[in-house]
Automatic annotation (TrEMBL):
Pfam families: Lipase. This is Lipase domain-containing protein. GO terms for cellular component: extracellular space. GO terms for molecular function: lipase activity; serine hydrolase activity. Keywords: Secreted, Signal. GO terms for biological process: lipid catabolic process. InterPro entries: AB_hydrolase_fold, Lipase, Lipase_N, TAG_lipase.
Length: 338
């Protein structure tokens, strides 16, 4: 699957591609300029083994309606920092992680923070693992996912010890951050996370056959993915209980010439933010027979629909879904099928 998508992106002909991929497996890896490079997987694995996982601290900032723009730093294990904050265990908690090259001021965190606090009373916690994610070396940043997840899990367990209910906890992550929250949910010890929203989970150096190393079904009571740059920067196959593919999961309207796929990759958090706010038009997808329907770009309406994202999440929405969007915000088109 990955090989065929690599060929599509690079525009290689089948005649040239066959000998290229005959003996080796190749993957697309973004470089420091977020441009994609074709690399031999054997070489990548060798480099990953050489790269030392960084020693870094994750910073957690709490936002509530009492402090919607200035985050309060919470330190896992420090009960005083929590007691002095606006954290309210009676309110639902949303922990949001940025991806590669991001920080505590990333658009993913800001968009989710604003959307949830517009909607109601929440504890929004931004995960700033920029010390591990800001490396110009993608391989090193990918290697830091587990350490970031360990620290986020430590925070979640700490909050549970101070009244937070795991049934009120959602984890949200974009790109590499989607795997951070997936691995976080695997590592928590006080309960099981209610919902994970994986926003175009990163594909480079993550593999379908290794769910224990990435976001996967079963990490939470419910896992939903929004896959907007499938097969390039984002994961191609469905990896959630429900997987939505806006505009077939590839080029997104309004992105223009998006060769590297970054615009489409970023649309996932923009779509989720809009689904959380109360809007007259919803992101309604039609259920497809399988992922092959997405590949074939043929998913006729057969009476079953599902709403993408939203607050609260709907655990009954399961399967693969297609929906179109507008090219500008508001992106939702509501009921588009006949």
């Amino acid at each position: 699957m990955q090989g065929s998508i690599v060929l599509l992106v690079l525009g290689l002909t089948a005649a040239f591609a066959a000998p290229l991929l005959e003996d080796d497996e190749w993957v697309l890896v973004p470089d420091e300029h977020m441009q994609l490079r074709l690399m031999n997987l054997k070489d990548v694995e060798f480099q990953m083994n050489l790269e030392n996982r960084g020693s870094f601290n994750v910073v957690f900032r709490l936002y509530t309606r009492e402090n919607p723009k200035e985050g309060e730093i919470i330190v896992p294990g420090d009960a005083e920092s929590l007691a002095k904050s606006n954290f309210n265990p009676n309110n639902p908690t949303r922990i949001v992680s940025h991806g590669w090259g991001g920080s505590g001021n990333s658009n993913t965190i800001r968009t989710c923070r604003e959307a949830y606090l517009y909607r109601g009373e929440f504890n929004i916690i931004g995960v700033d693992w920029s010390e591990g994610a800001d490396s110009k070396n993608y391989i090193k940043a990918r290697n830091n996912v587990n350490e970031a997840a360990r620290q986020v899990a430590q925070l979640a367990d700490f909050l549970a010890d101070h009244g937070m209910k795991f049934n009120d906890l959602y984890l949200i992550g974009h790109s590499l951050g989607a795997h951070v929250v997936g691995m976080t949910a695997k590592k928590v010890t006080r309960g099981k996370v209610n919902t994970i929203f994986g926003l175009d989970p990163a594909m480079p150096l993550f593999f379908e056959k290794k769910p224990n190393e990435r976001l996967a079904v079963g990490d939470a009571e419910y896992v939903q993915t929004i896959q907007t740059n499938a097969g390039v920067l984002g994961f191609d196959v469905p990896i959630g209980d429900a997987s939505f593919y806006p505009n077939w999961g590839g080029d997104q309207p309004g992105c223009g010439i998006d060769i590297a796929g970054t615009c489409a990759h970023y649309r996932s958090w923009a779509y989720l933010g809009e689904t959380i706010k109360e809007t007259p038009d919803e992101f309604i997808g039609v259920k497809c027979e399988s992922y092959q329907s997405i590949v074939d770009r043929y998913c006729p309406y057969k009476g079953v629909t599902g709403v993408m994202g939203g607050q609260p999440s709907n655990h009954s929405i399961v399967g693969v879904f297609y929906l179109p969007t507008a090219k500008d915000t508001p992106y939702a088109l509501g009921k588009f099928y006949q």
